[in-house]
Amino acid sequence: MKAAIYTRYGPPEAVVRIEEAERPVPGDGEVLIAIRAAAVNPLDCGFIRGTPYLLRLAVGFPRPKRTRPGADAAGTVAAVGGGVTRFKPGDAVFGLCRGAFAEFGCAPESALAAKPAGLSFEQAAAVPLAGLTALQGLRDAGRIQAGQRVLITGAAGGIGSFAVQLAKAFGAEVTAVCGPGGLALVRSLGADRAIDRTKEDFTRGGETWDLIFDLVQSRGFRASRRALARNGILVSGGILGVAPSFAGMARWGGRAVAGMLISRFGSRKLAFFVTKRSPEDLTLLAGLIAAGKVTPVIDRRYRLEETAAAIRHVQDGRAHGKVIITMEPER
């Protein structure tokens, strides 16, 4: 089978290549997927780039331990391991899969959900990590409620495009913050208001929101708390895109510690969370998509042979919505 492989850290065009690889064999509780489509995430960019540098302590130093990138996938079940009860060969599935930028990949049964018939493989591949992060960030960390005023930064990106639609589905009034190129998109997704981040600083306008979902870490908690209503929550969405160096990590860490200390003794709270794999949440997202309440936004499609270019497009922050890698044309 063909698969994307990298054996050292660096720019994707320099380190990612397509090679013949041995087809993986599913272990107990695992499913082998014939992958039809996969999606690129900033997480993949961080792993390949090897930044933040402290990340290498977990994923391999001086070289990566796992050499097959990719996590989001959709396809058909090719084989199942022992103990698998929810799926059988031929079933269409989507979810989190190791080494998803390949023709075949293995995934735990617990990381997958059945793909609805009305959802294309490309659309399904766009959902897992971004959709789960948006859902769990808003619902679990942010405790979103109908009628709340919600602000989302990075609203035109992969996670942000899901977050805008999910917040509206929860009944919130949504303000979307993004660059000028994404304003039309976030409005089309249902945002009640769109702010051009290059022209307006939402922390200095005197407005307040009940929930701020910060996906770009552009402001520290001290600044963002000015825009929080009393008892408001700032949900922090991650650091891979904003702390590529030790100095960046130190600055982010300092802001985080200061924010946690301030929020501990005040009515305005700072919340961190880790996205969890959940077949129930994947099924919930698929249902919202089938009902027309959420639509996966696909920015561009690339062939497997163009994986490095797909990763570069996401890494440069140019994508509005999700970037998809297709293993074969949709049938």
Description:
There is one protein chain. Strands 3, 4, 5, 6, 7, 14 and 15 form a seven-stranded mixed beta sheet that branches. With 331 residues, the chain is an alpha/beta fold. Helix 2 (42-49) crosses helix 11 and helix 5 (128-141) crosses helix 6 (158-169). The chain contains eleven helices and 15 strands. The protein is globular. The chain has two domains: 2-127 and 296-326, Quinone Oxidoreductase, Chain A, domain 1 (Alpha-Beta Complex); 130-272, Rossmann fold (3-Layer(aba) Sandwich).
Please give the structural blueprint.
Blueprint lengths: L1 E4 L6 H4 L1 E4 L9 E11 L1 H8 L6 H4 L12 E9 L11 E5 L7 E5 L3 E3 L6 H5 L2 H14 L7 E5 L4 H12 L3 E6 L4 H6 L4 E4 L12 E6 L6 H4 L3 E9 L9 H19 L4 E4 L6 H12 L7 E6 L3 H9 L6 E5 L5
Parallel strand pairs: 8-9, 8-11, 9-10, 11-12, 12-13, 14-15
Antiparallel strand pairs: 1-2, 3-4, 3-6, 3-15, 4-5, 5-7
Helix pairs in contact: 2-11, 5-6
